[in-house]
Design brief:
There is one protein chain. It contains 13 helices and eight strands. The protein is of the alpha/beta class. The protein has two domains: about 120 residues, no CATH class; about 110 residues, Rossmann fold (3-Layer(aba) Sandwich), CATH 3.40.50.1860. A four-stranded parallel β-sheet has the order 2-1-3-4, with helices on both faces. It has a four-stranded parallel β-sheet with strand order 6-5-7-8, sandwiched between helices. The two termini are about 20 Å apart.
């Protein structure tokens, strides 16, 4: 199966190893992975800030950068949620209406694609320790994933997956929310990290690098013995130099 890899600008610039691991996981799952280096942003930052004309321009480029009838996979529930949901506000009843609908029906967040499309949940990963999974707002509410990442994590050798309190509560990042409402955002991160600590976790795992960056900043500030990891990095952990 051929899949096109969508690497959001945030992952590309801040977490390139997550992008590489996503590529390796898809290859290990038997896919032929195609990456278009001309791809950029999905338009979510501009859309959320209210600059819909700018978001539409960026979104148009996105629609031209990817194929209509090939699966598109991304390690970001947030960006997939933007395309699947909010492109309706930008492109309904426009000249690219049909192209947009076709791409929306073919784009998937990584865990959703692995479990629900490929029907695969074991990749030989190894990670010793106790972990909690953070349900990102976009993953849970926009991409409708909850069981999928947990199913994948349960197959990781050495990893004990436990649930923390209020796992479905926002971590406080929310894009520009973290800038405009810094105090509230920081308090929400503190609450999320405290729940992970109370669960005895060594790792906080999620499908969204933005959530993990936000939580890791609080962890580093408080000098806690806790680490955040993206799901893709966990699934590729322990392979050696594959």
């Amino acid at each position: 199966m051929t899949v096109e890899l969508f690497i959001p600008c945030f992952v590309d610039q801040v977490y390139p190893e997550t992008a590489r691991n996503t590529f390796k996981i898809l290859e290990k799952a038997g896919c032929k992975v195609v990456y278009n280096p001309e791809q950029t942003c999905c338009g979510q930052p501009a859309f959320n800030a209210g600059f819909w004309d700018d978001a539409k321009a960026v979104g148009n480029k996105f629609l031209n950068d990817f194929s209509e009838n090939t699966f598109i996979v991304s390690p970001s529930a947030s960006c997939v949620g933007m395309v699947k949901g909010y492109y309706n506000d930008l492109f309904t009843n426009t000249a690219v209406h049909n192209r947009c609908r076709n791409i929306q029906s073919h784009i998937h967040e990584l865990s959703d694609f692995l479990v629900n499309v490929l029907k695969k949940d074991y990749f030989g990963a190894e990670l010793e320790g106790r972990a909690v999974y953070h349900d990102s707002c976009a993953g849970l509410r926009e991409c409708k994933i909850k069981a999928e990442p947990r199913q994948l994590l349960e197959k990781v050798h050495g990893l004990e997956l436990v649930e923390m309190a209020d796992t479905e509560t926002c971590c406080g990042f929310g894009g520009t929310f973290a800038v405009k409402f810094e105090g509230i955002s920081s308090a929400m991160a503190q609450q999320k990290v405290n729940h992970a600590v109370d669960a005895g976790a060594e790792y906080i795992i999620s499908t969204d690098a933005s959530c993990l960056m936000h939580l890791q900043a609080y962890i580093d500030k408080e000098q806690l013995s806790l680490k955040t990891m993206h799901l893709a990095d966990v699934l590729a952990h322990g392979w050696g130099n594959v």
